[in-house]
Amino acid sequence: xxxQGVRKKSVRQKLNVIASEFKGRNVLLVDDSxxxxxxxxxxxxxxxxxxxxxxxxxxxxxPVRYPNVYGIDMPTSGELVxxxxxxxxxxxxxxxxxxxxxxxxxxxxxxxxxNTRLDGFDASCFDGVYITGDVTPESIARMNEQRIDAQEDxxxxxxxxNLPNAQAA
Length: 169
Prior knowledge:
The chain has 169 residues and is mostly helical. The protein contains seven helices and three strands; from the N terminus they run H-H-E-H-E-H-E-H-H-H.
C-alpha cells in the first residue's frame, strides 16, 4: 500500500482484538514475515491496548534485510525494518517484549530436506546473496534512487525496482 499512514490505518481496519483473550495474559503472535514492521507494530500495540501483560512476536521467515531485485515488488533497503538493525533494535521498534525469527540456514536446511534435488535457491532478501552475481550495493542504491525519483515524479510504476539486467526498449 502506498504510504505509511495508509498501511497503518489498513491494519486497524482489518483486524479486531477480542479483549478477553488478551487481558492480563502473556501472548505469542506469529506472522509469516516482517517486512516494514508496520503491521507487526500495530498488532503488538493492539494486543497491549487490549490488556496483554507481555507480547511476544515470532516470524516464520528470517529477517528481511535486503530488497528483492528479481521482479517482486518490495520496499527499498531503507524501508525494511531489519536492514542494518539487530534483532533487539527491531524488537524495540516494533514494541514487543521478545522477537523470534526463523534462522536463514535453518530455513535453507528445512526446504532442502523437502526436495533433495534442490541445489540451493534464492534467499537474497534474507542473506543478501543474489544468485545472478551481478547485483552490487551500488546497483541496489541506483535502483532505490530511481524508485524514489519515480515516486516523486508520480510514475505509475514507481512501486517496482528496476531489474539490473533489464534491456532498454
